[in-house]
Amino acid sequence: MFEVPGTGKPAGTVVELMQPGYMMHDRLLRPAMVGVAKGEPEAPPEGVDHVDTTA
Fold first, then answer.
1. 37 and which of 13, 20, 21, 25 could share a cystine (Cβ 3.0–4.6 Å)?
2. For residue 37, what is the enclosing H or E element?
């Protein structure tokens, strides 16, 4: 339902439950409404201060 930035968890991990989902046997009646961890931006490699992106 939404992404939560800055959780320190891997991307896609459920961090907040807004409304539980329901199943009857193997059939999904209502999916859960959840907040998931947003992926953190990747840090540049060690020792690299500038990346030349001109072509």
1. 13
2. strand 33-37
